[in-house]
Design goal:
The complex is a heterodimer of chains A (461) and B (437).
Chain A (H helix, E strand, L loop, with lengths): L7 H11 L6 H8 L3 H9 L15 H16 L5 H13 L10 H14 L4 H9 L2 H6 L13 H11 L13 H10 L3 E3 L7 E3 L9 E3 L7 E3 L17 H7 L8 H14 L6 H13 L4 H9 L17 H12 L8 H8 L21 H15 L2 E2 L4 E2 L10 H12 L5 H12 L6 H17 L1 H4 L2
Helix pairs in contact in A: 1-2, 6-7, 9-10, 12-13, 12-14, 13-14, 15-17, 16-17, 17-20, 18-19, 18-20
Chain B lengths: L2 H18 L10 H6 L5 E7 L9 E3 L7 H8 L14 E4 L6 E4 L4 H8 L3 E8 L7 H10 L11 H7 L8 E4 L14 E4 L20 H10 L5 H21 L16 H18 L9 E6 L16 H23 L5 E6 L23 E6 L6 E3 L18 E2 L1 H12 L20
Parallel strand pairs in B: 1-8, 1-9, 5-11, 5-12, 6-7, 6-8
Antiparallel strand pairs in B: 2-4, 3-4, 5-10, 9-10
Helix pairs in contact in B: 1-8, 4-10, 9-10
The chains are: A mainly alpha (461), B alpha/beta (437).
Chain lengths: 461, 437
């Protein structure tokens, strides 16, 4: 298989689920006719945009739900799928949460920044995250000042955002002294608390003394380290601590930041673990592109390993993936207003991740209560006969179809592959009992969709 | 209603586990045995996530043995709790040094339990050389070991694994399952709240036989699978078997001291008390649940930690903790189970001794040694472990670890839960800290 071959239906489902939030069967078929390269380029063709937030802000829970609905609608817009999937990745990677941020404008402003820059240069993105009002509040950067150093952002910048605590050989990538030194170099940022997001450097807050970072290593930095001057201009490479993250090499001499981000993006788009050779290859490409996220994502999405059998059904869908994939595949209609409550019970409130580590993924998405919430959504969706209930959905039932044909139509509609025994169980459900009225038949059919969306096979992709 | 259906599933499971009875190696009963003997030990783990500032939880009052109080005041000009507020909350002297100690004023109810000899305060708890990262430090506490392997298991997971019978013996509140319960075989239920823990009812699907869809789902979940779909199917079967049963337990209206608590720690402790009450009153249909985990966030007080004002920061959190621990303990006594329940309060680390800002915004960065709190009738009340010295901080200004927290785990395993810590905690053997009577 080469990047020029046609995708085919299976690979098209895989790509649209991972690089977006799923699709309707008709769109899957359109993508199936494209080559891998053409399909990925089409996904990447959306120009970067700074979409404004939902607009009017109310107080408390209502405002949060309003923001969530606004974002869900964008995610469910086919054209925007990869842009929004990347924005969600960065929201999970560089989180700020509504339970800490008291001005929700700061959260939507951060969201817009992540969207605008999410497929651009990671160097630029890191700088804008560092001087972002919501992040300055979430990780106390605005409280970090000369003589009163606050280590919160510095530690997470290295541990969670750029390097990771240890390299592949188990050697620590930094010491506590580096956290303390980096924290001093990050002093000085402050923001004005008006509606306009003005972030600036303050003379009285910045620690202009000499600092040292990564002492004794080839990429050591020392001197008056910082991020930007009082005029807003970035520090030069040799004194800029953000550049120091890019210069970091692990104990085996490899680019630490590139490997860290490739691993994380691979986990997000492809599989929980990455093959060593693929990691080397993609990290090399990321460095050569001067840390272009778009170049990395493109290389990842056309990679053979992304389409391998091992990558299929290898990871648990996030609640957002689960919900939007189901709505799009079924062609259900919804205004999304009821979705935030379901998503909260499934464990994923947008704009309100549980902590600085983002959302725990994998099996954590399917604790008993969270799985139950998925079954609740499956039921609300499949039973939906009016948008007033949240969802409207009309199951397609070919006239005179046998139970087996009904099951096969539904499986194809969801792009779902199941074992022969599971398929037989579904057929048994549809054919069980004695046929009654039309409404009995419809209930049976809707019940089939509840079962399909509740299947273990539909919780993974 | 789906409750009766799930109940049937539960009884089916109980019959299956009865067939396996006798295969366990530790003292933990299978569910069927728990039904026969509902009086087994129960451990409640309360995790203060983010790093609770233990130095403002158990506070030095004087300089006996070392300049503890004077260092405390000079390093924390805005965070030191005034001595005048502490005198009535004294808990005696620190072992070794002899420094007088007091509980934070927001821990009034805990002080009451302490006075009854039902509270053990463990000073200087941690792991020497442990990381200042939340995530690395948490792993040590969850996994109960220093080296984290490729597929780590939790210390409770390993304990439960020894008796795994396909039925859950642990509940983790808050949505996701605590990694304390990571296991090879043993199941733990992740529950947001018992109140909603039931399959949805919808009249649309109550056709002919209301059982049909649930039975169909159960059948589909039982089909052979591989990979992560197999794990998901296992989680699904567990859910269907347990949901109706647990949601059928009365969680309000029975006179709980935590009746008014509607979210977080208070609600979760009330639901635990409700399960234990159910088991006590219905021994033939006991839940078999032996361990519960509750996680309280927001202890990562880098900014605005607060000293005594209960409207924000750590005092607000401590006030909630204290109120809930007392209410829970009173519930346990009223139910008649307080003799077999211990609550362990823990946090991934303590905090930096020196405050990092000033005024109301003052906070503390990540520290090393913290502390643990045990509550229960079986607890040896008093202060345990050596007080870390404030005049001998480590290179980063942190309190040195004096008590390996695994000595507390070992005590719980060997002297309360009925096992052998050597098969659960690598890196030992440990000398159990004498916190259990």
């Amino acid at each position: 298989v080469s990047a020029n071959d046609r995708l085919g239906v299976r690979d098209a489902w895989h790509l649209l689920r991972r690089a977006g939030f799923g699709a309707h069967e008709s769109e899957v078929n359109q993508y199936a006719a494209l080559s891998r390269a053409a399909a990925v380029d089409q996904l990447l063709a959306v120009p970067p945009e700074s979409a404004e937030g939902p607009g009017t802000y109310l107080a408390g829970t209502k405002a949060l739900e309003q923001m969530q609905v606004w974002w869900l609608r964008r995610m469910a817009t086919p054209r925007l799928r990869l842009q929004e999937k990347m924005t969600l990745f960065w929201h999970d990677h560089f989180p700020s949460a509504a339970d800490v941020i008291n001005r929700f404008e700061a959260l939507t402003e951060q969201n817009a920044m992540l969207r605008l820059r999410g497929l651009g240069s990671f160097r630029a993105l890191l700088r804008h995250v560092t001087r972002n009002r919501a992040m300055l509040q979430y990780l106390d950067g605005a409280e970090n000042r000369v003589g009163a150093v606050n280590e919160n952002y510095a530690r997470e910048l290295m541990e969670l955002f750029t390097l990771g605590p240890n390299d592949d050989a188990g050697a620590p990538n930094y010491q506590q002294l580096d956290v303390a030194g980096l924290a001093r170099a990050l002093t000085g940022f402050t923001y004005d608390t008006g509606d306009e997001p003005v972030v600036r450097m303050s003379h009285v807050r910045y620690d202009a003394g000499s600092k040292r970072l990564f002492a004794g290593r080839s990429f050591e930095r020392a001197g008056n380290l910082g991020v930007e001057g009082f005029d807003g201009k970035p520090f030069a490479r040799d004194t800029n601590v953000l550049f120091a993250m890019f210069a970091h090499r692990d104990s085996l001499g490899r680019p630490t930041l590139a490997r860290f981000l490739v691993r994380k993006l691979w986990r997000w788009f492809a599989t929980p673990e990455i093959d060593g050779a693929v990691l080397d290859e993609l990290a090399g490409a990321f460095v050569r592109s001067n840390y272009s996220v778009k170049a990395l994502v493109r290389a990842l999405l056309v990679h053979d390993a992304f389409y391998s059998q091992a990558a299929r059904s290898s990871t648990t869908k996030t609640p957002v993936d689960f919900a939007i994939q189901a709505v799009l595949a079924l062609g259900a209609q919804t205004d999304w207003l009821r979705a935030p409550a379901f998503l909260r019970r499934m464990g994923m409130s947008l704009f309100d991740p549980p902590g600085v580590e983002g959302w725990p993924d994998g099996a954590a998405w399917l604790s008993a209560s969270r799985y139950l919430a998925r079954i609740e959504l499956a039921q609300a969706l499949a039973s939906g006969r009016s948008t007033a209930d949240g969802f409207r959905f009309a199951p397609a039932a070919p006239r005179g179809a046998t139970p087996a044909a009904l099951v096969d139509v539904a499986l194809r509609q969801l792009g779902l592959e199941v074992s022969a025994s599971v398929r037989q169980g579904l057929i048994g459900h549809v054919s069980g009992g004695s046929p009654g009225t039309t409404s009995w038949y419809e209930m049976k059919l809707r019940g089939l969709y509840v079962l399909l969306l509740s299947l273990p096979e539909y919780q993974v992709h | 209603m789906s409750a009766p259906i799930s109940r049937r599933g539960f009884l089916k499971g109980a019959a299956a586990s009865a067939a396996l009875a006798g295969t366990h190696v530790l003292g933990w009963p299978t569910r069927a045995e728990a039904a026969a003997d509902p009086l087994g030990p129960v451990l409640v783990l309360v995790n203060l996530a983010g790093g609770n500032d233990f130095l403002n939880t158990v506070i030095p009052l004087d300089d006996v043995g070392a300049p503890q109080r004077s260092r405390y005041e000079s390093l924390r000009p805005d965070l030191a709790v005034p001595r005048s507020l502490l005198s009535s909350l004294s808990v005696g002297r620190a072992p070794g040094l002899g420094t007088s100690l007091a509980l934070h004023p927001s821990l009034d109810e805990l002080r009451f339990l302490y006075g009854q000899g039902r509270v053990a305060l463990v000073l200087g708890a941690g792991l020497t050389g442990s990381s200042l990262s939340h995530f690395e430090a948490e792993k040590a506490w969850f996994f109960g070991q220093r080296e984290v392997l490729a597929k780590p298991t939790g210390w409770m997971g390993r304990l439960l694994d020894a008796d795994a019978d396909g039925m859950p013996h642990a509940v983790s509140f808050g949505g996701e399952v605590s990694r304390t319960f990571d296991a090879v075989r043993a199941e733990a239920l992740g529950v947001a709240s018992l109140a909603r823990f039931t399959l949805p009812d919808d009249p649309l699907f109550e056709w002919r036989d209301g059982l049909q869809r649930e039975e169909a789902l159960r059948g589909l979940l039982s089909q052979p699978r591989t990979g992560i779909a197999a794990q998901v199917a296992r989680a699904g079967r567990l859910l269907i078997d347990q949901a109706g049963f647990l949601s059928g337990i009365e969680t309000r209206g029975w006179g709980s001291r935590l009746e008014g608590e509607e979210f977080g720690l208070g609600l979760e402790l009330r639901e635990i008390a409700s399960i234990l009450r159910h088991d006590q009153q219905n021994p033939a249909a006991a839940s078999g649940l032996r361990c519960f985990h509750v996680r309280v966030r927001s202890y990562d007080t880098h900014t605005a930690q607060g000293a005594t004002d209960e409207s924000f920061g750590q005092p607000e959190l401590l006030a909630q903790l204290s109120r809930c621990l007392l209410g829970f303990q009173q519930d346990l006594q009223a139910i008649g189970v307080s003799g077999r329940v211990i609550t362990l309060v823990y946090s991934e680390f303590g905090r930096r001794v020196a405050q990092n800002g000033s005024g109301r915004q003052a906070g503390t960065d990540h520290g090393a040694a913290g502390g643990m709190i045990l509550v229960g009738d079986r607890v040896v009340g008093g202060v345990h472990g050596l007080m870390p010295r404030l005049d001998r901080l480590d290179a980063h200004g942190n309190l040195a670890v004096t008590t390996d927290f695994r000595t507390v785990y070992a005590a719980l395993i060997d002297h309360f839960l009925g096992g052998d810590h050597r098969s659960v905690l690598p890196g030992g053997p440990f000398t159990p800290l004498p916190v259990i009577r």
